Amino acid sequence: QSALTQPASVSGSPGQSITISCTGTSSDVGGYNYVSWYQQHPGKAPKLIVYEVSNRPSGVSNRFSGSKSGNTASLTISGLQSEDEADYYCSSYISSHNIGDVFGTGTRVTVL
Amino acid sequence: EVQLVESGGGLVQPGGSLRLSCAASGFTFSSYWMHWVRQAPGKGLVWVSRINNDGSTTGYADSVKGRSTISRDNAKNTLYLQMNSLRPEDTAVYYCARDRNTAADSWGQGTLVTVSS
User: What is the pLDDT of residue A98?
Assistant: First the structure.
């Protein structure tokens, strides 16, 4: 159950687009369309922003979009805003007898 | 409104035990799988455990397998995590979360567990 690999930090200016990658294996990200993304502001609980690779829960801005290619999933934030400054985590279902999940290492997004 | 409220955290000595609870409201608790996720101070999220809606199927991270037991009482709308043989590396905020299509769509505010002598 090794953590999925994310870049430690990504930054962008207001209005720009940024993309966060999430790399796993064929046993997790590559094997299922069960990749989720979470946003976490300091001192707060995580918030689901994308599920099943590219679906957004009700109420989540359409500036957040998800995709997947092979063993790598991606989260794109378009029209970057100051409130997007937070930590972002991907997560994937993993194939095993243990019905498990695995999170990514996390990415700190900084709005310049 | 979905509400998840964790309790039961605190300071415990290495080797000790603790039972965390998560009181659910605002949705039909018995219809949903549930998760426990933890976050050590200043670190990332780590999935801990999942249980299906009737409690018959469970899963655990390797780091807690054999030391922790997830369970639920659907009559009381409450999720539990029994943790034994606690280690300093188990120190973390523990969140419960509702599962929807394998994603955690609602989260509690967390309860802090500190393992230290």
Answer: 63
**Percentage of residues of chain B with pLDDT beyond 70:** 100
Residues in Cβ contact with B46 at an 8 Å cutoff, skipping those fewer than 6 apart:
A3, A103, B37, B38, B39, B40, B61, B63, B92
List of residues 6+ apart from A78 with CB closer than 8 A: A17, A63, A65
- Using a CB-CB cut-off of 8 Å, the residues of chain B touching A38 are 45, 104
d(CA B55, CA A111): 43
What per-residue confidence (pLDDT) applies to B43?
A: 97
- Which of B50, B63, B103 is facing A48, going by the closest CB pair? B103
- Helix, strand, coil percentages for chain A (3-state, nearest 5): 5, 50, 50
B44 close contact with A: CB closer than 8 A: yes
All residues of chain B having their beta carbon less than 8 Å from the beta carbon of residue A42 are: none
Using alpha carbons, select from A73, A61, A86 the residue that is nearest to residue A19. Answer: A73
Residue A56's identity, in one-letter code, is R
CB within 8 Å: B47 and A101? yes
